[in-house]
Amino acid sequence: MLKSIFKKAGFLVLGLVINPVLAQEAKTISVFDEVPLNFNGEKTEITNGEYLQSGRIIIKKINVPEYPKGTDVKVKVTVKSAGDRWDKSGSLFVIPNPDKLDFIDVAKGNAEYPKAAGQDKYPGVKLGGDYEPALEVLRFMTPFGVGYYSDEEKNPNIEYNRPVYVPKWEEEVAWEMDVSQLESELTGEILIGAWIDTWTPEGYKISVELEYSGRELSKKLVKPLVNTVYYAGQKHPDLFAFNPLKAEFQLPEKAKNAKLYYITTGHGGHSGGDEFIKLRNTVKFDSETVLETIPWRDDCASFRRFNPSSGVWIRKDSARAYNRQGERIFSEVQERLASSDLSRSNWCPGSKVAPYELDLGDLQAGKHEVLIDIDATPVDGDKLNHWLVTAYLVYEK
């Protein structure tokens, strides 16, 4: 009897091993591997892909296995400078429905943004007409010169930028983020791309990986609503200085456990601009406030090791420290203050930007509205104040 049970158990275990229907395999996919991103600079061949916007955008079609029972998804992005010494905005995105009008059609000169997808003089910032904005997977900010300027032998003056608590400059910066809420848009055949706001021919090199655990996870639907990143045919989005941005959309069916994901960063304007001052963001869904916050990062000094080419100033300060006789005394000191150390509107040079995750509960089928209001500042000459904002809806059937 016992031997019979063991035989049955062994058969069952064997059945689990050989039956692919009962297993979901873990998988890691390399999307880009040190691909140049620049403005009119070096290019490389991208299998099933191409460059847009003079090399500032790369896109690629890839095939990922379907996970019928869902899966965790993690993204990893690695960036290093190939000669660009500045901090720049970056975005990893997917085109959810390539059959619909998207910014790639505009970039290639095959279409224009429909009027319904814009607001005032700002085209393509929200869904509207037959246009759907790109779905942003990860917002990131390049540091000042990591990689190219990390070599102090090739760049001898860079060592004088390095504070005593940084033993060496990093060679690259890498970010990882759990993006499992986007699983439905990151499996099957997908069109994925990356953008860096570089204007130098040297630019950057970027690598991207997608990691799938295979662990069962509830399936979700995703609806892109807003994206003000100026990928193609758009200008610096200072629209919030004039009016809130409103996006209306239809849900064809009831949505369970709905969540609104909101990504926001303020930029430009020099020392007194939106990048460096605290400004309130208010998000309303169906006229109800779901977020009111001042997005701000005050930990930027922790990224110093990624910023070798950041500008540096000397700041006088007072310290209570030990002298050579072992006595604690007050003394005037001079410290390096790097531009990369300064607090900013929800980002630091070398950081990723996590989305706000806003619970909406269950939603009825029909018309809904998202409204985003920011106490922003308009562009003024070379003071290029602007806000990069993304919003998308995630829900279950």
From TrEMBL:
Gene3D superfamilies found in the cross-reference section: 2.60.120.230, Peptide-N-glycosidase F, N-terminal domain
Designated name of the protein: Peptide-N-glycosidase F, C terminal
Example GO molecular function: hydrolase activity, acting on glycosyl bonds
Signal peptide bounds: 1-23
Record-annotated Peptide-N-glycosidase F N-terminal domain positions: 28-212
Keyword Hydrolase recorded: yes
Keywords: Disulfide bond, Glycosidase, Hydrolase, Signal
Organism per entry: Salegentibacter holothuriorum
Statement: the UniProt record of this protein carries the keyword Hydrolase: yes
A Pfam family annotated for this UniProt entry: N-glycanase_C
